[in-house]
Specification:
alpha/beta, TIM Barrel, about 40% helix, binds pyridoxal-5'-phosphate
Amino acid sequence: MSIAGRIAQIRETIRTESPHPERVRLIAVSKKQNPERMLEAARAGILDFGENRIQEALDKFSRESFPGITRHFIGYLQSNKVNKCLQNFNWLHSLQTEKLAGLIADSEIPLLCLIEVNISGESSKSGIRPEALRTFVKQLSAYRGLQVRGLMGIAPQSEETAIRRSFKLLRELAQDCRSLETENLRFEELSMGMSGDYRIALQEGASMLRIGTAIFGPREN
Ligand SMILES: *Cc1c(COP(=O)(O)O)cnc(C)c1O
């Protein structure tokens, strides 16, 4: 199937499975995909692209112009790359340290952030532990320039019940964080769901899907 055909299929799933389809943003994760494929996705109406390596993203974004698109950084962000991220991306999905929060808050350039939460139940995975989330959010309220809009999570590679449980957990955590909301810290967005599990994520209330291989096919190495 063509890239446009796969995107149309995912859009149809959004329409049938999400409780609020009009609020769902489909982010095409273009890491290790070439710019020609990205253009094909853009022509099929994709307005959001996700990348997890700064340098790779800059190389590709400079080869083709993608007018009007929103750029999401979904990988681990080292503090020495924060400026490049600020200059080239609109969203960061992986905020998980106060150090990073401070650097972003001090900048003049806006970067909308999601807090990455470890919903997998595996201690080896990245993200704030669910038990530590409220404390982290309270610490973030000291950084006045920081703009938080929600939570991001990656489900375990497991069977459906465990995946669903982890997405439900993320939704409940966001709900719980609402009592800590300020003008700058808001918990409207749920970035969850990838190629293998986005249908479940939609049913559990995802507002941002991060989908790579189900749009583009296998990644190049
Ligand atoms: C690669 C990646 C995705 C997309 O993965 P697919 O399985 O190809 O859809 C989503 N989120 C993050 C954080 C990723 O690194």
